[in-house]
Amino acid sequence: MTAEELRRAFISGNILYISDPQIANGIPHYHIFIKKIDGGYLTTVCCTSQFEKNLKHITRVRESLDTLVSIDHETSDNGLHDFTYVNCNGYFAYTEAELLSLNAKRNIPFCGAVTVFEFQKIIKGFLVSRRVDEEFKDEVRMLLVD
């Protein structure tokens, strides 16, 4: 994807396939773009197929089960092949320059988008998490649809 195409993909709910050497030794993972935070950070949440592992961890640390969100792979607009989950107890923050650099080295393809319903569940998951900082919660709270 060109740098300009990547910039245009920075829309809440879009799925990008990011190969970040700091995450799982650079094995590509689907990331859902959350929003550009004031100050220039682009925030994403990483997807996983490891439901049981995440469920056990969330239960062990006594987080709300609402912080584990399921993304349906059968939705035609998301490009996913398997059931996918989002653990909303953390997020990733990149500068635009970091993502553009990763794209230049490893190509970050746009894969589709989650549904509005799924995106809202992710935002609500962030808001109920005790592990997500209040500043980020304030930033994403405005993404809730009534």
Describe it for me?
By secondary structure, the protein is an alpha+beta fold. 33% of the residues lie in helices and 26% in strands. It is globular and about 40 Å long. The chain starts with a helix and ends in a 5-residue tail after the last helix. The model has no long low-confidence stretch (mean pLDDT 93).
Approximately what portion of the residues adopt beta-strand conformation?
Answer: 25-35%
Order of helices and strands: HEEEHEEEHEHH
Structural classification: alpha+beta
Write down how many β-strands occur, each being a DSSP E stretch of 2 or more residues.
7
| Structural shape | globular
* Total helical segments: 5
Keywords summarizing the entry:
single chain; 146 residues; alpha+beta; seven-stranded antiparallel beta sheet; 5 helices; 33% helix; globular
Sequence-ordered SSE layout with sheet pairings:
Layout: H1 3-8, E1 14-18, E2 29-37, E3 41-48, H2 51-60, E4 68-71, E5 84-87, E6 92-95, H3 96-106, E7 110-113, H4 116-128, H5 134-141
Antiparallel strand pairs: 1-2, 1-7, 2-3, 3-5, 3-6, 4-5
Report a brief summary of the structure.
33% of the residues lie in helices and 26% in strands.
